[in-house]
Amino acid sequence: MLVSLDPCTGEGVWEGPVAGVAQVAAAVEAARAAFPGWAMAPVEARHAVARAFAEAVKAEAEPFARLIARETGKPLWEARTEVASTAAKVEISISAQMGRAGVAEGEVAGTRSVTRHKPHGVLAVLGPYNFPAHLPNGHIVPALIAGNACVFKPSEHTPAVGAFMADLWERAGLPRGVLGVVQGAVGTGKALAGADIDGLLFTGSAGGGAALARQFAETPGRILALEMGGNNPLVVWDLAPDKLEAAAALIVQSAYLSAGQRCTNARRLIVEDRAAGPLMEAVTALIDRLIVDQPFADPAPFLGPVIHNAAAEHLVAAAAGLAGEGARVLRPLVRRDPARPFLTPGLYDVTGLGARPDDELFGPLLQMVRVESFEAAMDAANATRFGLAAGLIGGEEALYRRFWAASRAGVVNWNRPTNGAASSAPFGGIGASGNHRPSAYYAADYAAWPVASLEAEVPAATIGVGVR
Fold this sequence. Notes:
alpha/beta, Aldehyde Dehydrogenase, Chain A, domain 1, Aldehyde Dehydrogenase, Chain A, domain 2, five-stranded parallel beta sheet, 14 helices, NAD, Succinylglutamic semialdehyde dehydrogenase, oxidoreductase, arginine metabolism
């Protein structure tokens, strides 16, 4: 049996059977059988079902948010934001599909040229736990409105949210079999990736994405969209003295929002050495004011726990390792209750460390580096195999242009948090952060494949050269 637990209390939230190879194959077979009818339905009909799903999400917004908060531990205010994003994804995806994967007509030498798009068939979706509704929904909605059938495996840590969301699709009138759900952990995911599918859409860790890339290496005809993590840099440079408080707020939001469990959270803070003192005073003062508590607490917390005890233990060990290597502890990452995964936000000055591991430490742990020049700041920012998000705080536009040009990241922000992203823009990264298939607005690109046609209503051709 698969059991999910409330990370704040340890109480059970959901339990159900684990899907084995046979159950996965049956779900894929059902999706395969449902695909032709769904693909042939008018696009307006598919849009209508998606819009009905959005209305169902809105109608169940509060219980949906409370379930997310219970299963992930994130604050209720943040869970409500996730539910709103889940509903809003529908209209954004419809707009993207019509703009990026609609019908384009032209003329070539007097012949009509038409580009249309076809769905792949059956697409697998592997979802993460940090945004258990919004992120898999960002794959599912574009895939379904393009005419694909989907088989969805939620994270093993958030199966209840996945099942709840699938029920809302059924309530919206999605035909049986078009969206199947299989529950389980790594074994179920491997079985689904190896099943008779036409592609896989993934959000998760770099290690998980690399394993899928290896699994798909022998089947290049199957689409594989990988949205993975980051070791994201945030550079503060040429900051006006009267902007210290604003900069501190941007740093704290970048590093500690969602308990540091966003792939776009800042992991590395790179600052001008001569200006580090006042900035760190403002940042640590704000850290000391942050409330860490359970989702429904009053006053509302800024951050809740990380997803489970093993994650907390890993982060505590990583922080201890930094301190053991000589990092200066500005604010310690502390696990206040050894039985529960609540962590206080940690800030460590790692300037003196000779070798810093290029890892995504998925939690409220920020490493600070002091440098002498902007060139050194960019070298430090790009010293990573990842390439998801990067941010600059301070400076004039000319400096930002330098920063943008030199950054290796798919999301580059200026005077905004690293975890700020527009739904009307693409989202994704390079290197260990993804395989150049950005999601969000560009998800329409991988949900269907283009078919280019030259069309004439009657045959008309002659051969004018090389004929006796």
